[in-house]
Amino acid sequence: MKIYKYLILPAFIAIVAISCEKDGVLTNSTQTDIFDEQVWTDSLKTTQVLTAVYSGLGPETMLVRINTSNSLSEYSDESDERWVASNSNPPVAAFQKGTMSASSIPQPFNTTWSDNYVNIRRANLFLSRVDEAPLSAGTKKRMKAEARFLRAYYYHMLMKHYAGVPIIEEVLTIDGDFNLPRNTYEECVNFVTSELDLAAADLPVDYIAAGKGQDYGRATRGACLALKARVLLFAASPLFNGGAAKPNPVFGYPSNDPSRWAKAADAAKAVMDSGNYSLLQGTNGNNSTAEGYYLLYLTRINPEMILARLTGSNRSLESSHLPKSRGGGFHTHLNAHYVNAFPMSNGKAITDPLSGYNPQNPYINRDPRFYRSVIYNGAKWLNPSNSLKQPVYTFVGEPTGMDGLIDPWVGINSGTGYYNRKCMSEDLTGTSGGAQHFFPFLRYGEILLNYAEAKNESLSAPDASVYNALIDLRKRAGITAGADGKYGLKTGMTQDEMRQIIRDERRIELSFEDHRFWDIRRWKIGTSTYGKKLRAMKIVLKPGAPSPAALTNPAYVNYIDIPTNYTYTEFDLLKPSVFIENTSNLLPIPQSQINISNKLIQNPGWEN
């Protein structure tokens, strides 16, 4: 495998210069510059360099990435967003309208190339100098493994955006050779997986069990195994496994090899067989309300989190995404197609005639994850005006004028009739309270889905292990077992039938966790998702039901909550987003980078 010593970066010389400024280990002027020679004579400062490598981890969903309030979900088919109503040129509009170019890349992708390579540079620096630090041999060994894991994670981020990228294992110098080509996708996969294998051998299974609770949240052996499973899943997927737009090994494997699915399944199974992780269950094992699924994102130490972004007490998500009546910025309006993906509590899809779904009473007896993920008409949330959990109303003409459905793009209330509640604390409002929130970079629920997908694709028909992985998730979700104990899964499914079930399950279980955007691309289903109009739910009070003004009277609250007091009508919300199959699956490398290297090829469809 060919590994390059130097790496090209957008505006590379400027980036190297910036990296050398005395901004401090954590961009804090009170700390020491990571390039200061004295760093490596001080154990604390050396540790701060590694902490700086960790500081670059941040999901696209986090609020600092897009207009301070929006999320990557609005770039997929999970939700609509309200910026179009209040901003003539929001970042997501470039995706919706197909106006993005290599010279004009919107947030959060405009800095993806440079951000990841800056963090790779930090990791390389740490690996090259940590042996000089006054730390024990055991600590150095572990910290090197952490740096290797982090470097592999940043390369994984680059690979899912661009496919093959230049690989570097040495510290860049300002007088280096920047005119170098990209490594092939296969070389990148091999490099990342080999680095994860090396790191796993030197990392602990559990910091708390090892008596090092102060290090909780750092990379572990399980994090290495989980990331390896994800990288191999991407490598086996249609986009990269012989499905590139052009037959260049930089863009993916030149030909399809079904055995890559088996490798991905084996990697996920290694995490499962380790016995170190499990799905977080509800109190006393009660999953009837999907309590474990809800608490997953609010519980600092739990058996499902493999690697997470840890935060102190805050209400950032609530302030950004809750409805206006709850003090939120109501930025995320759920696509009804996503809402409709939730099955009934018996596990059957709402399109199944035997599911029991009633389109004129659509929010009863649904998968309990639905009630932890969606704010719909009548769903209760804490009211900041009286500290009571009361219904949120999204029907047309609701009396507060805050949360009800409005004509698309006229005003800034809900454009779909739905708001997001995933990952948020139900005890907070957008203006009061605080709670710790934990975003999963890697969690066991994903591993089960990765295994189910890879195993199903490696077989002619799904076996019991594929069913069991999904059953574990559905059982924790609170779906009823049914007489056959299959939790709504049809017996004897074909590979194609199971494939669709797995994709639907991923869409629900991993929603708003930065997966759907990438799943659409690696599965090459963009034209059938972005090409489908967003859906909204129009809810209207029936004649004879209490007038909207009556909602202000507490005596009517219970009566107005009766779903049959409304009529429900779904409608198309927007024109489809522009999605060009041979262009949109991979994102463009910034043109500024292409301009400074005549050997660096652009991704298909983004060439000038």
Automatic annotation (TrEMBL):
Limits of the RagB/SusD domain: 324-606
Compartments where located: Cell outer membrane
The keyword Signal belongs to this UniProt entry's keyword annotation: yes
Superkingdom in the source lineage: Bacteria
Predominant place of localization: membrane
One GO cellular component term: cell outer membrane
Gene3D superfamilies per UniProt: 1.25.40.390
Signal as UniProt keyword: yes
Alphabetical UniProt keywords: Cell outer membrane, Membrane, Signal
Residues annotated as domain SusD-like N-terminal: 46-233
Similarity comment text for this entry: Belongs to the SusD family.
Protein's UniProt name: Starch-binding associating with outer membrane
Organism: Flavobacterium fluvii
Lineage of the organism: Bacteria, Pseudomonadati, Bacteroidota, Flavobacteriia, Flavobacteriales
